[in-house]
Amino acid sequence: MSLAKARTMPGVMELLPLDQIAFQTMMETIRRNFERFGFLPIETPAIEFTDVLLTKSGGETERQVYFVQSTGSLQKGDDPTLALRFDLTVPLARYVAEHEHDLSFPFRRYQMQRVYRGESAQRGRFREFYQCDIDVIGKDQLSVRYDAELPAVIHSIFRELNVGAFTLQLNNRKILRGFFERLGVTDGEQQMQVLREVDKIDKRGAAAVRQTLTAEPFSLPAEQADAIMAFVAQRSSSHDSALAMLEALGGGNTTLEAGIAEMREVLTLLKALGVPEAFYLLNFSIARGLDYYTGTVFETILTAHPEIGSVCSGGRYENLASHYTKSRLPGVGVSIGATRLFYQLREAGLIGTARSSVQAMVAMLDDADLPLYLELAGQLRAAGINTEVQLEPKKLGKQFQYADRAGIRFVLMLGTDEKAKGVVAIKDMWRQEQFEVERAELTRTLRVEIEQSEAMPKVKTP
RNA sequence: GUGGGAUUAGCUCAGCUGGUUAGAGCAUCGGAUUGUGAUUCCGAGGGUCGUGGGUUCGAGUCCCAUAUUCCACCCCA
Questions:
Q1: What's the pLDDT score for residue A358?
Q2: Contacts of A152 (CB under 8 A, 6+ apart)
Q3: Between A155 and A189, whose confidence is greater?
Q4: From the CA of A332, how many Å to the C1' of B64?
Q5: Is any atom of strand B within 7 angstroms of residue A10's beta carbon?
Q6: Average confidence (pLDDT) over A139-156
Q7: Which of A12, A303, A366, A367 lies at 20 to 30 Å from A121 by C-alpha?
């Protein structure tokens, strides 16, 4: 009988325990910061009704949705009525519409769950991945001030994740649309198309984008294309220069003027929120591909690793849940793709293998003394130390090898010599040192050692 | 959905224009006096060369098909 090949489908991330600990450490940092800024947790089911999920989108998302069907329904040949969620924003819209009367507005929620997309496999692209979303949903209206609060949360998270310098890149779609309108590109659909092209400028290069804009189907006159290219090439270098960029735009139509006013308020509040100006800039080429963004848009780029692209992005949308309720529910949100972020940080060498969550291991020196070892482990656990006991007699060398591979730092030995002296030997696998402590002092000493070890960076870089 | 690469040991790969029993590094397992790992030394196991067909005296190597996988575009986190 041939064995089935043990494998996973492409596009899923599966980690070894120490990497899983590093991933969870990252997730805890994100969660802690979400909560620190006053966001509330929710979870929604992985499976939703297809008519709920497939409202807003047309071709592209539908192509990527996994439909879910019971075998019975499949055999009857029914069309699937269920599907796996492909993001957390659509389920949020459904959630808010469904629970509208039980929620307090503005509703500030965070959500960290897996989503599913039928992507073709590629590096850093996953079919199952974690999204960590925060959104603020208002009833009828929501102040643009919230658009400044979200980047402040993101700043707090990435600073704590210790991934080096990064910049929050901001823009406002009203500025882009208003500018295009002033230039004479007035058709809404064409504005969208131009937005999408302009958004690729950092990836494809300015020359290629200009080429696309002047060619079919855009066929923009050279002067228009040049004006657009000159406009979107602008980046601010400081808080004041960002304000000056806005000032220099002038006016001309209500869309443009509204965008400038919004952007100015966001920048001002970002500063007031205490985000140092080195961490944010105004970038007129940021547009985002998604259709539903209407105002502020943002992306986050790691300074040392621009090739990674945006590690966190989002923006402002009007009327999130128009498909489910007649209430007007505007919102602003950002999403961190945690799976891709972790994967790319690891590729870039910014995240190494974590230490084990097991803090101490009691070695087995004599099979007959097992009850003694169990008692010792009980003491440690009662003191809050994560402890593992060797339950099978093995050569001591093997036990050390096991501890080393498992990433366990402290190995405790209580054998004939130690019993006679009333001590426990502690071997520090990292420092390659060994010392003895009185049994009564054991938990206290070990706690000190572990605390010192915690004070060092959580994660060893390779 | 459109286009391009790749497939040889658990992993990363070598194998020149077809020529005997297909190799290396890492990993795994065992040993180097019975309470000390990761370093060193010695040894061992492990492959129907993705699958099916064809050309040939002879195919890992050439041709066709198929599967799988990766990359670029599209789109996105």
A1: 93
A2: A37, A270, A273, A274, A275
A3: A155
A4: 57
A5: yes
A6: 95
A7: A303
Is the predicted pLDDT of residue A272 greater than 50, yes or no?
Answer: yes
Strand B bases, protein C-beta under 7 A: 1-2, 28, 34-38, 68-77
Query: What are the domain boundaries of chain A?
Result: 13-161+304-343+350-354, 165-299, 360-455
Q: What is the dihedral of CA A447, A449, A452, A453, to 10 degrees?
A: -100
Same fold for the pair A165-299 and A360-455 = no
Peptide bond into A276 cis (omega under 30): no
Per the structure, the residues numbered 148 to 177 in protein chain A that have their CB within 7 angstroms of any atom of strand B are: none
Candidate CATH numbers 3.30.930.10, 3.10.20.90, 3.40.50.300, 3.40.50.720; the one for domain A165-299 = 3.30.930.10
A416 sits within 7 Å of strand B by its CB: yes
Q: For the domain with range A13-161+304-343+350-354, which CATH number is right: 2.40.50.140, 3.30.930.10, 3.30.565.10, 3.30.465.10?
A: 3.30.930.10
A360-455 homologous superfamily: Anticodon-binding domain (3.40.50.800)
Residue at shortest CA–C1' distance from B38: A404
Cβ atoms A89, A110 nearer than 8 A: no
Digit-coded pLDDT (tens) for A379-407: 999 999 999 999 988 889 889 988 988 88
Closest-lying nucleotide for A403 based on CA to C1': B37
Separation of first and last alpha carbons in chain A? 42
Q: Strand B closer than 7 Å to the CB of A5? A: no
Distance between CA atoms of A236 and A260, rounded to whole angstroms?
Answer: 14
* Rounded Cα gap, residues A83 and A260, in angstroms: 40
Total residue count of chain A as it appears in this document: 462
